[in-house]
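Write out structure tokens for GNAT family N-acetyltransferase.
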Amino acid sequence: MVTIGADRLMQAISPHGNLPLVRRLEAVGFRAWPAASVVYDGSWQVRLTGGHPSKRLNCVVPLDPSDYRDAAIRIERARKRFEHYGRPLLVRETPLAPQPLLEALRADGWAPFETVNVMTADLAGLELPDTISHLPSHDIGRYIDASLAVHEEDPAIKPALAEILSAIKPPTGLFIAEDPGNGPLAAMLCVQDNDLAGILSFAVAPDRRRQGLGTEMLTAALRWARISGARTAWLQVDASNASALSLYHRFGFREVYRYHYWRQETGA
């Protein structure tokens, strides 16, 4: 049997993780959801976005397992930078994070508080269901209004979300499902970065879940990505989101690695 795309990538993963694959998925993830401010402290990426609360846009991401020298000084330096933005300091632990850094954080009263699965699927061999087609939109304003509605997010972040979407460099499909009488029903962002396509910011309105709309939207995005030349799809999903995980598993997505957010416990 010939193996391609995500199958070959998955087979390459060692018990300790396929770090080159992790680096590649991290890189496309940064490009697909760009922070307003990105600076480097050694190999640590310090990401901040004043107008948007997304943890992915406001965290420190260590990207080299061997880079932990002067960790306490660098954490304090990052803390001051986050304070200037009015943000709590968060560290995002991927398989690239140095273990001595994590041990030092735990000793200083830090703890992980959220786990996210990074998953991939082989688009080349994927049989997509025959569903209603949803074509991508290029209307950023319309997409933002729909996304805020179905995510039930604060409309005040609309300008920041517009800046994020406008800053995405790779080709992007904005997928929206609407009802003329009831407004937005679902929204999804698909970012194609060469042979990789990322599914981001996917949500279905609470009263329309478990009715097949999620399957329709995901099918439409993956079909568009495949036609556009993507070979592998990737996404990030909260490890506790059982319904989303069930949907993604049905489409052949499998976990590649997990990451965790860390914060310092109050009073530590």
